[in-house]
Fold this sequence. Notes:
Blueprint: H1 5-15, E1 22-24, H2 31-44, E2 46-51, H3 59-70, E3 73-78, E4 81-85
Parallel strand pairs: 1-2
Antiparallel strand pairs: 2-4, 3-4
Amino acid sequence: MALTGRQVRQLRSLAHHLNPVIIIGKSDVNEGTVQQANESLEAHELIKCSVLDGSSMTAREAADELAERCHAEVVQVIGRKFSLYRESHRENVEKIKLV
């Protein structure tokens, strides 16, 4: 699912106030990171992640790999932080209404 420019702007504004829930360290993107990201995306749809200095990956590389493995969309990458979006399949979650 490709996001339009308008949807990306909307998600960026929503993600601005979030704190990182996924921290990528020197073990880079592993199965535990992917599982944690999948659970967070199902619960919240939009998450912010952070890449520590000890990681061998850049924020863009980590965002692309994690998004691919979680079937999510990269919303934004700034410095060592990035945001991911994926629509939740759960019914009891308040969904983000994209314009």
